[in-house]
Design goal:
alpha/beta; 3 domains; five-stranded antiparallel beta sheet; 40 strands; elongated
């Protein structure tokens, strides 16, 4: 009986233990399932947060890149427009076209402002552009690189030069016409006379003392300090060598090459026969018609100074240019005229009684023309000069077709295109269609003309700087690029 009761208790304990174990298992299983669900939810929330953050970050990057792309596009547009502004002005300047000192260009919502400033002997062109708050700027410096090369103290066209007593040229001369000298007439450099046209008599040099070399068809009654190249020569003295087809009545210190000789003394060796020497070719003037037209264009762009004659106030300083005078320019009572640009006078220029004409100091080593469609006449202590900087000159251009001879109403004294009564060492003179006449005892720096007449004791004194003369305006060759860069 006791054993049965013990077994029963044991069974109850086992069953109770199983029941308790089963209840504990169910509790653990429910707890684990609840804990796993919270972990999954936490993971989902975390992934959602991360995705949102990534999406937000990606969106921020996209928007930032978009803004950067727009800014870059605006910056490029601003730069291109700044370059376009510079290129527009540079093209106009180098093509001798009209341009404004300040102008505004607009394109696709962007604008650029271009300005032109004189700096020394050049022009600085700056273009500042604005596109959607993006500012870009470009700068170009143009230096005067063109102009004219006056390689000779005197260059002459087909009318040649007539020398009077003791007149001369301190420098060299190239002439398409004859050189007709006189007692004491002197050329300190070389003398070259081009071949005459087929229908004209042969070119010649006569009655001159020439310290340098000579090249001409016919040389007679002259003295040559160095060498000579001629077709025929007579009554001459040559300190160097000579090459010629025929020689007569000559004294040659050096060697002589010839085909025919008569009554000559040759200290050096003699060579014969020889080929007949070639003659020098005609030489064009250093200032072209295109450059003269460019000066007219620049003056026209500057506006009208006077529609008729222009006579500035007496005893005062007046600044003019660039601009056009529709009549005559008359200076007759100690007026001082300062040129701030090219001046085109459609009739004549008459400077008298102490008149002064010079260039504005801002031109530096640039030269500026005073252009007259008619004649130019100066007398009674007129004074002419450049800017005050070495290499700067006032250039007188007289375009009248006046070739001397009997006086006509359309020409100045001596029926000339340019007539000079007083010294003008700060100016150069150009008369491509007529003659220039120099009166007694005056000195000038350079003359280029179709023909020249030198009165007693008048002298042309050449300055070396004229070989590289630069003008303030002209055709494309007158400006060269000397720097192109982007600036802040």
């Amino acid at each position: 009986m006791k054993n049965e009761k013990r077994q029963f208790r044991i069974k109850n304990l086992v069953i109770e233990g199983h029941f308790r174990n089963f209840s504990f298992f169910n509790f653990n299983f429910s707890f684990e399932r609840k804990r796993n669900g919270q972990a999954i939810l936490t993971t989902i929330i975390f992934l959602l947060f991360v995705s949102t953050a990534v999406l937000f970050g990606f969106s921020t990057i996209v928007l930032s890149e978009k803004r950067l792309a727009f800014g870059e596009e605006s910056s490029i547009k601003s730069y291109v427009l700044a370059e376009a502004g510079v290129e527009d002005v540079v093209y106009r300047m180098m093509s001798a076209k009209q341009y404004d000192l300040s102008e505004v260009l607009a394109l696709d919502g962007a604008t650029t402002t271009t300005s032109v400033v004189t700096v020394g002997n050049g022009r600085e062109v700056i273009s500042r552009s604005l596109a959607a708050s993006r500012v870009r700027a470009s700068k170009v410096f143009l230096r005067a690189g063109g102009g004219a090369s006056f390689l000779y103290g005197v260059q002459v066209g087909d009318q040649g030069v007539v020398f009077n007593n003791n007149s001369g040229i301190q420098g060299s001369i190239y002439s398409n016409g004859n050189l007709d000298g006189d007692s004491g007439a002197l050329i300190t450099g070389d003398a070259i006379v081009a071949k005459a046209p087929t229908s004209s008599p042969a070119s010649f040099i006569e009655d001159l003392e020439i310290d340098g070399d000579v090249w001409v068809h016919t040389l007679r009654d002259s003295t040559v300090g160095r060498n000579a190249t001629t077709v025929t020569a007579s009554d001459i003295t040559v300190s160097g060598n000579i090459v010629s087809d025929t020689l007569s009545e000559c004294t040659i210190t050096g060697n002589a090459s010839y085909n025919s000789i008569d009554d000559c003394t040759v200290s050096g060796s003699s060579v014969t026969p020889v080929s007949v020497p070639m003659e020098a070719p005609p030489l064009d003037f250093p200032i072209s018609d295109a450059q003269i037209q460019a000066w007219r264009d620049e003056a026209t762009a500057g506006g009208t100074i006077s529609s008729g004659d222009y006579n500035p106030p007496n005893n005062q300083t007046t600044v003019i240019g660039p601009g056009v005078i529709g009549g005559n320019l008359i200076l007759d009572n100690k007026e001082t005229l300062v040129l701030a640009g090219t001046v085109w006078v459609k009739k004549n220029v008459d400077a008298d009684n102490g008149a002064t004409i010079n260039l504005a100091p801002s031109f530096g080593d640039l030269s500026v023309p005073l252009l007259a469609d008619g004649w130019i006449h100066t007398k009674n202590n007129g004074q002419f000069s450049g800017s005050g900087t070495a290499g700067s000159y006032l250039l007188f251009v007289g375009l009248a077709s006046c070739l001397g001879g009997a006086q006509t109403s359309s020409c100045t004294h001596h029926n000339a295109a340019i007539d000079l009564h007083n010294n003008a060492t700060g100016a150069i003179f150009f008369a491509p269609n007529g003659i220039t006449n120099l009166h007694n005892n005056i000195t000038v720096t350079e003359i280029t003309a179709r023909g020249i007449r030198l009165d007693n004791n008048s002298v042309v004194v050449y300055e070396q700087g004229l070989a590289n003369l630069k003008f303030s305006a002209g055709p494309s060759g007158s400006w060269r690029l000397d720097g192109w860069q982007e600036v802040k």
